Amino acid sequence: MSVATSQLQVFKAQFFHALAHPVRIKILEILVRGERSVQELQEALNLEQPVVSQQLAVLRNQNIVTAQKEGVSVRYALRDPSIGALL
């Protein structure tokens, strides 16, 4: 097995591990329709802010979503729109 293949497999494993939680999948399904703030995601998911922020941190750490500060809030979006097709 080549090093490149091994690195690709590690990337895929980390990517799919990041998706291995129902709340993270639901967040991505919402973000497919457009960027949202933590507050908007919290309302849509009917979850507390710390839970939403924790799940967003996992997605952000794997570069699946982007975060952009807008005033006092942070807006999240999919880094790559093709994630919608994957879901």
List descriptors.
87 residues; alpha+beta; 5 helices; 59% helix; 16% strand; elongated
Explain this structure to me?
- With 87 residues, the protein is α+β, with helices and mostly antiparallel strands.
- 59% of the residues lie in helices and 16% in strands.
- The model has no long low-confidence stretch (mean pLDDT 90).
Low-confidence stretches: none
For the largest beta sheet, what order do the strands appear in spatially?
A: 1-3-2
Report the oligomer: single chain
Shape descriptor reads elongated
Largest sheet: 3 strands, antiparallel
Radius of gyration: 14 Å
What portion of residues belong to β-strands? 15-25%
Helix count, DSSP H or I runs of 4 or more residues: 5
| Secondary-structure class | alpha+beta
Which helices and strands occur, and which strands form pairs?
Elements lengths: L2 H16 L3 H10 L4 E2 H8 L3 H13 L3 E6 L2 E6 L4 H4 L1
Antiparallel strand pairs: 1-3, 2-3
In short:
With 87 residues, the chain is α+β, with helices and mostly antiparallel strands. Helix content is 59%, strand content 16%. The N and C termini lie far apart (29 Å).
